[in-house]
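U., I forgot to send this yesterday:
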Amino acid sequence: RYVGLPLISWNADNSGFEQSTGSDSLRLQLAPTIKHQASAIITLLERYEWYKILIVTGKIAGHRNFKQVMRELIIETPENQRHIIILDMLTLTNASDIALAARTDARVFVLYSTRREAIGIMKAAKNAGLTKKSFVWITTQSVIGENLREPPNEFPIGMLGVHFSTTVNTMIEQIGTGMSIVGHSLDKIVNSTTLDHSFKKQLVQSGPSCEKWSQGEHLYQYLRNVSIPQKGGSPSLEFLSDGSKESVELKIVNLQTHLAGKRWEEIGVWQSVDREDKKKKVLDIKDIVWPGDALKPPEGIPEKRFLRVSFLEEDPYIMLGPPSTCSANKGIICQMVDDPLLEGINQTEEMRKENSTYFQCCSGFCVDLLNKFSVDLSFDFKMMRVRDGKWGGIVNGQWNGLVKELINHETDIVMTSLKINSGREKVIDFSVPFLETGITILVAKRTGIISPTAFLEPFDIVSWMLVALVAIQIAAGFIFLFEWISPAGYNMKFKHSQGRFSFLRTLWLVWAVLFQAAVNVDCPRGYTARFMAHIWAMFALIFLAIYTANLAAFMITREEFPNLTGMDDRRLVNPTSVKPSFRFGTIPNGATDYIMKNNFPQVH
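Result:
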């Protein structure tokens, strides 16, 4: 292209070196191009009605070109015959990433990679369950290589591939083909009657110059327009406008088991041009060994769609228990750790353990709902606990938890009590809510508590002060005064054997009557003093009756809790305003945390 010299090439194993379809290309490709291989694969897909495919590539040079060619060939198919749908295209940096394909509906995989990459990819595919009898793998020549008798052990029986010879002997044979192309083109130039002698001379030789050869494109046209008859009735050697061969024959091979082990067997031939109808592609297939030694080709579509379901436990929506309880509570076994942590673990044995940390029995409302959906919508599922154990919030500008797994397509659906908020609704889709809820402030209750001052609570402090400091003192004072001045009372001038009736003895009488204590007291002798004592006794009787009646109600055990008025409560807005400081919190990265952060920043 840059020096203006036509090139006849044989690039058999790497489409990264193939020419583009630009108008300035001066290359003739003798080997089957990646477009020929892609066309053969599409013909094979159409034959068995495998219409939903997934393209898997490694980092091999030309992997983007291969995917583009597959898309273009499907688009070029007439609309009424266009059935093939590319579900996804995976370019694998790590072979273990093939596990992403397990979450798609694809059952037919088209693999384009190097042989070394294919070994790692197929090993990871086996671990992910993608090599069972319902899966088909179709490979290109770059995966198969030269030796058909020694395929890698990682390749499963039943693989299909497109093959053509890339041995050294084949390359040497192409030297003669190239010389024949040059000879036929020179013969046409020499025998041309429309070209003068000087122009013919310019076409066959170029002088020593660093400039682009101006006559290179003319020579390329003669090289590309040759038509060389072939032996055995094969189509003539001709080239298309992009420099690729018009007539190409590719072998369809199948990985089968023999006494000596696995090996690729030729089971058919694909021809880009029919001998009778040049517009028609021909595919001739013999008996094929299908994956899993099945008697018929795989359907190419899943019997049931498989869904990866992420969850986070919360009663009563999803409850966890030992695996052995699943039969009793209609639960299902759910995986508590990520897949890489299960490598080397006997999963069957682990599911039987009562204290397993890898598997638990999931039950509850969401599990019952999921089981119902799986029956009605005909899908299989696998429940796995979210890796980081979080509901889904924004931390440092990035989502975590269940929301992150949905955004990164690490799971298909989430089935749990995940609340809807404006932030989550912007990045993920929710189903119709099955429960309307709101935000509730939960406080701790202290039950069985009796206040140390409960015996004083039947009356308020003013009543107690009136009784203790006023009523008792007045009653004692009047009784003592009337007894002092009464003629029938104690004569205070003489000393009696029983002692004098003093003010302290009067107080003792008043307290004894008030509490109805069975103690010795000095009763007054005067009628007036006795009348006052009876008035006090009547008051004490009524007071004690009221006190006793109310005391039972106040001595009942109570439940104490902070009586918050709402999110604007002073204890929430300013926790340090009370002593000790009021402590509160919420589940991090949850819906309540998100609402508080955005709507109540002073509380958050």
